Amino acid sequence: MSNRFKLYIKNAKQVVLVCNNGERFLTKEGMKNLSVIENCSLIIGIDGLVKAVGPADSIDSRFEGASFENVINATGMCVIPGLIDAHTHPVWAGDRVHEFALKLAGATYMEVHQAGGGIHFTVTHTRQASPDQLFSSLSQRLTRMLRSGTTLVECKSGYGLDLDTELKMLMVIERARQSLDIGISSTYCGAHAVPKGKTVAEATEDIIKVQLPKLKEKMEQGDLRVDNIDVFCEKGVFDLDSTRAILQAGKDMGLQINFHGDELNPMNSAQLGAELNALAISHLEEVTNGGIAAMAKAGTSAVLLPTTAYILRLPQPRARDMLDCGVIVALGSDFNPNAYCCSMPMVMHLACVNMRMAMNEALAAATINAAYALGLSQSHGSLEVGKQGDLLLINSSRWEHLIYQFGGHQELIKYVIIKGNVV
Ligand code: NIG
Ligand code: FE
Q1: Ligand 1 mean position, distance from CA 118 (Å)
Q2: SS3 letters for the chain?
Q3: Which residue ranges does the record assign to the Amidohydrolase-related domain (predicted)?
Q4: What confidence category does residue 1 fall into, taking pLDDT thresholds of 50, 70 and 90?
Q5: Considering only CA atoms, which residue is closest to atom 1 of ligand 1?
């Protein structure tokens, strides 16, 4: 073994491993009992992977005489895995602050959408924006997320609804993946709304016969990497049959299924996700008991989005019922022009206060379970030997301050570390 390492984090007050048995996800019992070590040190190798983690004394003697590119004295601080945001829409032009005012005055999300605003407003502006403009705003947003502790983020397309703009958005996400520190899982969301002037059947056919084959070609040529497929399965948007057809076509070309379901109306999206062996379904404010049971049985994770329920004053996602039934619960910010939130600490706070999750549960949902929702929990989401060295140093002697404090997280997060590099 080489005697050179990238990073030595010395003597942290607490290190929250999240899990340490190689679990790919945690359900209720595991989330309750997160693995925490007091007075702990951690070593990241030159390859950016965790090499060792354990009691400070034993790490000190084991690595005596080794050389490190960087040493951080973490006395009085806590270490947690980097936060993972399992649901965002970060590529767009045209904010909707004017619609926030309408919604505060009583308009519903669907009233604004059906009047041609909402997603349609953002689509008009995103179609007109250049790739450079989109990249510039995307990198600013991802940098804000990173400063708030997000080290891996899911990024959707979906404000194009036509082949050219969807590809433009996915290429911008690809550019970010290659040039920014933050980790990215990319999602094709061409079925985010039915484009103006098209029927659901026409839009579905365009996605399956035109957009997905072109995407496949680009992926095979190595121009683009896309990880997931998404559909907004909702009354007045894509119904259950069109959602099934689009998701199945995406799955057939190797994409992981991760879609919007049961948000504003019960659609049986959860049952559909279970039937298709989806990796994840987001929202689920209106999920039924049968849907919860089906997801638990299929191992389909629930990506809950407390910002959306908060902003739209929807019923809260039923986190407790899902946990009680054994569903794998993850969290996401849903960053988009409707829910303008870049901060996973705020998301965890809302999950605890409004969805009645415990702080341990919220952290597991924003780390190992969010990694699972993206199909990346073998390499991300916990501080275990062999996993990617993505972590946060919290300037507090108890990690829970990250959730307890309401805002101001950028001061609390002393260092964000990705692959062993301070970023
Ligand atoms: O997850 N519900 C559908 N999609 C987004 C909102 C997108 C938008 O309004 O621009 C969501 O909340
Ligand atoms: Fe969304």
Answers
A1: 8
A2: CCCEEEEEEEEEEEEEEECCCCCCCCCHHHHHCCEEEEEEEEEEECCCEEEEEEEHHHHHHHCCCCEEEEEEECCCCEEEECEEECCECCCCCCCCHHHHHHHHCCCCHHHHHHCCCCHHHHHHHHHHCCHHHHHHHHHHHHHHHHHCCEEEEEEECCCCCCHHHHHHHHHHHHHHHHHCCCEEEEEEEEECCCCCCCCHHHHHHHHHHHHHHHHHHHHHCCCCCCCEEEEEECCCCECHHHHHHHHHHHHHCCCEEEEEECCCCCCCHHHHHHHCCCCEEEECCCCCHHHHHHHHHHCCEEEECHHHHHHCCCCCCCHHHHHHCCCCEEECCCECCCCCCCCHHHHHHHHHHHCCCCHHHHHHHCCHHHHHHCCCCCCCCCCCCCCECCEEEECCCCCCHHHHCCCCHHHHEEEEEECCEEC
A3: 79-423
A4: low
A5: 334
